[in-house]
Hints:
The structure holds 3 protein chains of 3 kinds. By secondary structure, chain A is an alpha/beta fold.
Amino acid sequence: MKFKKLTTLVICGAMALSLAACGSGGSSSSGSASSSAASSASASASAKSEAVTSSSSSGAGESVSSGSSASAASRPDLSGKDLSGLKLGMAFRHGSNDTYMTSYFQHMKNYAKTVGVDLVLLDAVDDVTKQTNQVQDLIQQKCDVIMIWPVNSESSVAQAKSVQQAGIPCLMCNSNVTDDGIDYTVGFVGPDDYTEGYNAAKQAMTDLGSSAKGAKVLFVEGVNGQQQAQARKEGMQKAVEEAGGTFVDSQTSEGKREKAQQVAENWLVKYPSKGDITAIMTFDDNTAVGVYNAVKAAGREGEFPIWAAATGDYSIISGYIKDGKIAGASLQSPITESETALDWACWIALGNDLPSKSVFIDTPVITKENFDQVDQGNFEKLI
Amino acid sequence: MKKVTKFLSVNTSIPILIGIMIIATILDVSFLAPGNLFNVFNQNAIKGIMAIGMSFVILNGFFDMSLCTLLSLTAALACGLQPKIGVAGAVLVALLVGLLVGIINGLLVAYVGINAFVVTLALMLGCRGFAYIYPDEQSISATSDAFRAFGTGKLGPLTYISWLYIIGLLIAHYVLRYTSHGRNTYAAGGNASAAENAGINVRKTIFINFVICGVLSGLGGVLYAAQNGASTPALGWPDMHMLVIAGVVLGGTKLSGGYGNIWYSLIGVMILGVVNNIMSITNAQPWVSTFCTGAIMIAVLIADKFLSDARARAGLKN
Amino acid sequence: MEQNKKMAVGGFLKSQALLLVGIIIFIIFGLLQHSFFTTANVVNIFRQIAVIAIMGAGMTYAIIGGNFDLSVGSLLSLCGSVVIVTTNQVGQVGAVLITILVGCLSGVLCGYLCGYLHLNSMVATLGMMNVLQALTLMYTKGQFVSLDNSDLPIVGLGQGNVGIVPVSVIIMAIFCIVFAVILKRTVFGHHVKAVGTNSETCRYSGINDNKIVMLTFVISGFSTAIAAILLAMRGAGAQPTMGLGYEFDVITAVILGGADLNGGEGSIYRTFVGALIIGIMKTGFVILGMSVYYQYVAECIIILLAVYMDIRASRKGVKK
Lengths: 383, 318, 320
């Protein structure tokens, strides 16, 4: 029996060794089912150009960040700087929930290799207790800068505080801490969720024209208690109410496409006649496709527009927004965002400051009409 | 030397833990840095506290599924009630809710005789509902600085929560070894009808153990809220209770009851904690981390099975 | 014989009581919101429970055999992704066969761990859940996978209708009926019940209890594979975290259906009614515009009431 014990121990060890080795050694390609679509249908965008457009307006009083924001998504000038000695750590929210987050995660890893920095990238799979532990691990590994994309903004205040107390600059990415934690961070790099929601909904109401007043809008929420989803909802609601409409119903999709489909199916039963629904808005593109599937299956395609607060999945942009199945959304490019965040983290690690407390990345509204004019953010890099 | 070998062959989870730690050191020597080792202990202290409660129930031959959502509910209460009735009041209410859930579990399992899985699953669903309804599906930030300071503060290399865990382990050890309730727990878990015939009030024992588990699970939620400075509705979902049960079982306590002790839960929780730590240190791909956690759980179960079969064949007892 | 008759009558009453509860809940929701009483809504409810009902049928076998299968949620994610990707690669028929194979293989592995090695099924299937989730992530690289050609006939499994009845509902009905018949009328079904009641005596009677337990897990895996195909085809795509949390809904359905979690008793029909109750409540709260989470509180109360009444009834029976 001692032999059996030894064998099992050796097997466990060999398993762990081999898996960890192939895990950290091999760099996974970020190819995906959508990559072939991206390569054939991507717009021009060869250089690292910023998404500049006229339709985005500055946020109407976003609740999260304080201080002035940089006007366009500027990137620091890192040419000629030696980045090889830098060690960065990132506590990531969920690297595999949907294509946008996965693209961000994978590209962050690859870009760090290209740039030559040592990046420790940990995935909390949407578990706040796991993220707290991972932040502690990053502190223990003595990173020069720690980036956090929080699972939960309220909880990340304590995390940011512990990073600051360890003497490490803490940079928030893509989703910010709540107001009482701002002082523990050196800043925020990412899209402005409230503005995204506001702009997308504002465009939606403008497109509705005369039906905007008294509009009956249904809203599909994201994961409960998640600040990004909440900010987008508030932004959309503000724009809808400004144009004279109301959110008649609002339900959670838990961030899953097929749950959004179920919610939409139930609504289509509750509001069976034409004119009952003026528009359906969702917090992201993934759930918008779920809603579209339900609408198409019920044969009510075209009765009302479907809008998403934000989109970051190229297969959805080229498959659904291009031909108007989804009317529009604010465009987020996981490529631009991950690269910008990493660039600024390197900048901070070299001893510099952010140009302002919040560096917002532009998120233009993309629709069928302006599809070819909007810079789609280098999606071909995902191949 | 013989004594040590015998000790290790009976308490099989210890060599397993040592083996995993050796593998960790081979993969990255910084694992052994004292700062990292203390880190691992601190990170798993709250799970450990909940594992103490779960150990009492498992030694009695049952398990408690309501843990995962109960802790979300108590976290929300501990944060949400602070502005109204102060920190002490909020924490007290949260613990009382844990007590209440433990009482309901205990009553239904011990006195009405419903299957523990059904009762605790039902309570889990109920707590999940309330954990979202009470805070209106939102996260709540804790307003009290003292509360947050307790959750993150350190005394030496260990956090206050870790010290609390150590105190909890010592108290639990005393109760299990030196009190009649402890002896009754083992007896009832090993063979309930024999225990009944021996004059032990088995129902009362079961009831008390579920209450202990409920209070400690509630405490776990409060501590998570203190550590994070906020409560999240999804805290602990979907499988915190399974990780705690796995921690207890991996340490060597038998799920059928009557065999094990509180130190096994410490070892089991640390095994899982070390595995997570290895994943962070080696910057492993996320799927590798999930795969290894699952594979190791199964591997340790198999190893334990071989070893306990061998033990049974050799005629060794508890 | 008298005892058997009493038990049969008791079981029949239990089933009908459950269905009655479901109908009452349905009526209450309908009174609060008239659109609940429409045909479209009823069709909706049946369509939405198809996945849980099919998985529940398989899980009932595992539970009657005395084990839990917590890996079904992750297996749902894995099979959903597999069917989409393999349809793109090898066509529909190959995809369905491969997905069923994956489901059965997972069942074989779980069955081996729990049936032959006699590991604790809760912790062992929890480990499998992690392993399967990791395999799903590795397989899909975390991406949402979609069908290249969404006009294939296989999509009709998830989206098609025969008249007003969705194809998935028809499949669910056939599935449940076949599984119920196997459980009640075949020797295998009786063996499963016997093993769940007392596996040791079964061995003395010459029943290979290890093999029976393994087969119950294979059935559970097979059902999950079929359910995954239906679920993935509803949107012609699969998210890697699609099945997260499904195992609790499925087990709740089986428990609502009154299966004995110690093993030895259960019925596919009652599991189906359990799934139906869950579906009615899920839909009901959405249509009422209330927080979906009230459903969990309702389920908690219903389970406890149902089990409490069950215990009272059996106590009365024993006392006589």
